[in-house]
Amino acid sequence: MLKKLLIISLIGVALTNAQTPKIQNSLQNTLERNGKANVIIRFKQETQPILVQVNNKRFDSRGNKISFLKTQLEQLARDSQTEVISILLSSKSVIHFESFWINNKIFVKNASQELIQKIAEIPNVTEIREELVAHINRNQERAYPANTKQDEVQWGVGRIEADQAWELVGGNHGEGIVVANIDTGVRRTHEALRDNYRTTYGWYDAFARVPNPLDIDGDGTHSMGIIAGTRNGIGVAPGVQWIACKACEYAYCDEVDLLKCGEWILCPTTWNGQRPDCSMAPNLVSNGWAVDKGNDFYAEVIGAWHAANIIPIFEVGDGPNNCETVQSPGDYSNVITVGSFDPSNTLKSNSGRGPTMDGRIKPDLTAPGHEIISAGYEGDYEYETLYGYSTSTACPHVAGTVALLLARNPDLTFDQIKDLLQDNADREVGSTLVCGGTNYTTWPNNMYGHGRVNARRALASLIGGFTSVAPEI
User: Fold this and answer.
1) CA distances from 56 to 171, 230, 420, 472 (A)
2) CA nearest 130: which of 104, 97, 108?
3) Which residues form the Peptidase S8/S53 domain (predicted)?
4) What pLDDT score was predicted for residue 140?
5) Residue 444: is the preceding peptide bond cis (ω within 30°)?
6) Cross-strand partners of 445
7) What average pLDDT is seen over the chain?
8) Between the chain's N and C termini, which has fewer beta carbons within 10 Å?
9) Nearest to 258, CA basis, from 420, 382, 266
10) CA 411 to CA 259: how far, in whole Å?
């Protein structure tokens, strides 16, 4: 009888562990192989109730709203994480860890199996998994044309008719709007970017904490040039101010650095992480990086951005020439997701296509992403052309267009901006594809979304009487 009870008891424990596993299977495999791993710890207490609370309150300024949000999230993290942090601080070995308030998670570097097992025993810890690594597309070639200086706008800026948007009665160049990107950094001394860099609360290097903006890889500089460049016709919204957070290097972005940037975007600090000032948060953030599809690791960050009225724009991701290749966070419903086309309006072969894993249509829009000239990262007067199929090059075209809309009406909500972009997109395309039961003549579809972004038509619609109800701050 005792033997039978013991067997039943063990089966019960096994079933309980199978039903509520805390340690990710792939993490367990890594620990068995290497003995240590970089991990993310998740807690039972979620941030969503705080976001709802903030959205239901009224504030006298956006800065005060974000400050209140940050304070509430910080308190949640303190209350939830105390026991785990105590274990980390009392560990015999030196433990490097980061506590995050924006999503109530903890990152631990080189955590041992023994340490992970001990943390897993804490009741309010719900998951321990490996740290993710995001990527930036590298299926592209760089070139420095012999003669890149020109008076007219570059083809991508012209194709979305941004220059015509500037000339509308009531048009603008993005004045009064602050744009940000999370990328490889920005060469702030470049002639096309040095005059509109916001020198106060304008830079954070999550990777190495250097005091001034730099870029040793090029993607971030090229991207910011498309959004905000003031020379050589490269910028969609040359009147904006720009700020940047560096989370990526050599085509890779560690999750810990993406989370640091997520917090910094919400409430910027000085370059060394001191003196946060939430009133300096940008109006929008462009993201040219992705992880594999169906991953919600950045959902809390984007939720907090929404509560702070920060518009998130993401690339759809660059993948194989297939349907169902939308990557995360581009597959989230609450981001503006951008695919890529070439000068013939043909969808690029590795521009991610829908549907998403739960059957939604993505991308939302497409934009120029091939043969794009923008600021080079190796010299203050150099301009480089990307000949690849990069949706990270398309994404900033939409970010610049969003800046033009916000400059006309800074009270526009995310949904209003998305409607303006989608309802006024161009639908003359050069592809004959079918994905998820939608083809190139069905709108929206899983290749082009609602069409090719058109800045002039979107801004003209807003100027011409698009109904906007100012959100409660």
Assistant:
1) 33, 39, 25, 9
2) 108
3) 174-451
4) 57
5) yes
6) 449
7) 92
8) N
9) 266
10) 27
What is the pLDDT at residue 392?
Answer: 92
Residue 353 has pLDDT above 70, yes or no: yes
- CB proximity list for 345: less than 8 A, separation 6 or greater: 428, 429, 430, 431, 452
Residues shown for the chain: 473
Give the list of residues 6+ apart from residue 361 with CB closer than 8 angstroms, or none: 354, 355, 436, 438, 444, 445, 446, 449
C-alpha distances out from residue 330 to 140, 251, 358, Å = 20, 17, 13
Q: Is 104 left (phi over 0), alpha (psi -120 to 50) or beta?
A: left
242 in Cβ contact with 203 (< 8 Å): no
Residue 39 structure tokens = 């991990």
pLDDT tens digits along 90-147 = 988 778 999 999 999 999 999 999 999 999 999 999 999 999 999 997 655 666 664 5
Q: What is the pLDDT of residues 60-71, one digit of tens each?
A: 999 999 999 999
The amino acid occupying position 65 is K
Beta bridge partner(s), residue 295: none
Measured CA to CA, the distance from residue 402 to residue 227 in angstroms comes to 10
Backbone angles phi, psi at 313, to 5 degrees: -120, 130
Q: Structural domain boundaries of the chain?
A: 19-131, 142-463
The structure tokens listed for 294 are 């169906």
- In one-letter notation, the amino acid at residue 51 is L
Q: How far is CA 224 from CA 31, 137, 207, 391, 467, in A?
A: 40, 16, 19, 14, 30
Choosing among 3.40.50.1100, 3.40.50.200, 3.30.1540.10, 1.10.10.10, the CATH entry for 142-463 is 3.40.50.200
Contacts of 277 (CB under 8 A, 6+ apart): 63, 201, 267, 268, 269
